[in-house]
Amino acid sequence: MWDTRFQKKKVYLEWERIFSTFENSRLRKQKAIRAVVQRYDPIVLLYNPDVVKTLQALLKENIFQNSWAAPRAFPELFPSEAKPDTAPPQQPAGSTTQAVFGMDGPSKELLTSFKQLYARGEYADLVITCHGKQHQVHKAIVCPRSDFFAAACRGDMKEARTGIIDLPDDDPQVVDMMVYYFYHLDYSTPPLHIIKGKEVTDQMDTHGDGDDVTASRPCYSDLVVHAKIYALAGKYFIGGLKALALQKFEAATQKHWAPGDFLEAAQEVYTSTLDSDRGLRDAIVKTLFEHRDLLVQENTRGVLKRLDTLTYDLLMYVNQKVTHWR
Fold first, then answer.
1. How far is CA 193 from the centre of its chain?
2. Which residues contact 78 (CB under 8 A, 6 or more apart)?
């Protein structure tokens, strides 16, 4: 009897030691948890329900992409878990990684590594500068996504020799979001937490020497930000970013927005994109047609007088939509 109690106590202490290590180091690796579960007979878990709760908590913290994956991989820890009504997608023979991590496991791992490179700047071999601000980037990530940057890093170009590409004619705020997109496949518009028309003042270390440099940047609405991102992506041949900016712009036009913001975005689009580039231009014309109340406003009339191409596009769109003239 004493031996049995001793064995139980030994197992209990061993579990405490293992999971203390897990929680302190925040190891959320299913592989490590599997090793612990398989180390002992599952019946031992009954001696310490807190251990089961700890395991279940770890398994639910972003280890698996699918809700069915954790109970499927560790049925010992989910004895009362009901089987899903629909069977999970069948995996090809031998694809144990996808079965455990879910279909998006490898993609998530790759994107996470990109985010870490962005945050830490490790292994960077190229610098993008804009108005004094430097971005430490990686040719292997940037160049395959942009024909412009790829060409600048090839041959005997100055940028290829120095490893520095300067973008003096661009908005540093928009360049920030472009670089962010390279590593996150997304971008976020900055919050408008100040009065519209003012400027945001940033403190940034632009030279890496610890000295903060005060810089100001204009405060843009979401519509204008998407328009600027779209134009920049077109300028540097970043197809994915251009498509994303168009998608975000079209989604933003379905939400509540101020007429002044929309007119500012329209002017940005019609002065920064080619006539043949119909993406955002068509979105502007469609929105004007759907919000014809804007046409009675003096500001809108002023924009249409200045942007004769927009006026022409709107007239042609109306001609397609309206079956007869009243």
1. 21
2. 56, 70, 71
Q: Does residue 161 register a pLDDT over 60?
A: yes
Q: Mean per-residue pLDDT for 274-278? A: 94
105-219 CATH choice from 3.40.640.10, 3.40.630.30, 3.30.710.10, 3.40.50.2020: 3.30.710.10
In 3D space, the residue among 277, 271, 326, 274 whose CA is nearest the CA of residue 303 turns out to be 271
In 3-state terms the chain splits into helix, strand, coil percentages (rounded to 5) of: 60, 10, 35
What whole-number distance in Å separates Cα of residue 102 and Cα of residue 156?
A: 45
Does an H or E element contain 141, and which?
helix 139-142
Q: Is 124 exposed, middle or buried (0-12, 13-18, 19+ CB in 10 A)?
A: middle
Kindly list the domain boundaries of the chain, sorted by start residue. Answer: 2-103, 105-219
pLDDT tens profile 50-94: 666 666 666 665 554 444 555 665 665 665 544 444 444 454 544
